[in-house]
Amino acid sequence: MNQPYKILFLCTGNSARSILGEALATTLSHGRLIGHSAGSEPKQYVHPITLKIAREMGYPLELLRSKTWDEFGREDAPHMDFIITVCDSAAGEECPYWPGHPTTAHWGFIDPENDAINEQALWEAFRKVEMELRNRIELLLDLPLDMLDRLQIKNELHSIHHKLNQQYNLSE
């Protein structure tokens, strides 16, 4: 592999799940992946817990911002190799045209911001999403991406999510 693969994580608000995906993909891959994130209706802020988790990973916080997915649909935007939706809402929306025709998949996770009744539960919800994303990205990194064609990669991306959901008895 000469160039790192670019991966875009999408959700609606782009304040938690997709930003965690961006930070995890970049930090876990040691240069194999460059993570990006965006939302269909960005909240214009990054959730404070997301920032704390990204800081723990050593991800540069100045790179994190909530942004619209339209930034990545322009012809002059960086061409993504993979686009992964991380919330069911964004997966059901009509996405922009993606230059370069990237491989797409859906890895749906609960919204940690909506899954908590107190501060401890909020942290637990964020940590759960972080762990689930981490597991999937680590499996992605185990793939011989430079030896697979687009259809094989698409199948592997879907398989990773379904296998882990079955393993942890998560609904899809």
From TrEMBL:
Any Pfam family: LMWPc
Domain of life: Bacteria
Signal peptide (from-to): none
Listed CDD domains: LMWP_ArsC (cd16345)
Protein's GO biological process: response to arsenic-containing substance
UniProt xrefs under InterPro entries: Ptyr_pPase (IPR023485), Ptyr_pPase_sf (IPR036196)
SUPFAM superfamilies found in the cross-reference section: Phosphotyrosine protein phosphatases I
Alphabetic keyword roster: Arsenical resistance
Domain Phosphotyrosine protein phosphatase I: 5-143
Keyword Thylakoid on entry: no
Protein name (database record): Protein-tyrosine-phosphatase
